[in-house]
């Protein structure tokens, strides 16, 4: 590895030590459906966001709830087991990006076939505390 590349990698690694996040990759839900649920919790406090996701009937909310719990656990690991309730954690940023697409064919009338696109997505969720340690 070159010197510049190593310095850049070290700088990125150092910056990630101060960020608390979780990533969900290749989730078999369309990005549009996931964004609808993600918009509900963006900027909200973590405990309130968990309640919103728990009682939301959409399928994507279950996956986001699990991802948010993972981000909270990552925060606890980096902060030596501190309680998240004491630090007023909130959802700082949530990104839903498109992932790979499975392409299938479905029979159509008169011997034709229509293409079905089964979409998937990547979700990145950042949390932060309103009171800095």
Q: What is this structure's SSE topology?
A:
Elements: H1 3-16, E1 20-27, H2 31-41, H3 46-54, H4 59-78, E2 89-107, E3 113-129
How does this model look, in words?
Helix 3 (46-54) packs antiparallel against helix 4. With 133 residues, the protein is of the alpha+beta class. It is flat and about 65 Å long. The protein has a three-stranded antiparallel beta sheet. The mean pLDDT is 93. It has a single domain, classed as Ribosomal protein L22/L17 (Ribosomal Protein L22, Chain A, Alpha-Beta Complex). 41% of the residues lie in helices and 33% in strands. The protein starts with a helix and ends with a strand. The chain contains four helices and three strands; from the N terminus they run αβαααββ. The longest helix is centred in the middle third of the chain and has 20 residues, at 59-78. The protein has helices at residues 3-16, 31-41, 46-54, 59-78, and strands spanning 20-27, 89-107, 113-129.
User: How do the SSEs run, as a string of H and E?
Assistant: HEHHHEE
Report the sheet-strand fraction: 25-35%
- The CATH architecture assignment turns out to be Alpha-Beta Complex
Low-confidence stretches: none
Q: Please report the distance between the alpha carbons of the first and last residues.
A: 35 Å
Q: Which CATH top level class fits?
A: Alpha Beta
Question: How many structural domains are formed by the residues?
Answer: 1
Q: What is the overall number of helices?
A: 4
Task: Kindly list the characteristics that best describe this protein.
3-stranded antiparallel beta sheet; alpha+beta; 133 residues; Ribosomal Protein L22, Chain A
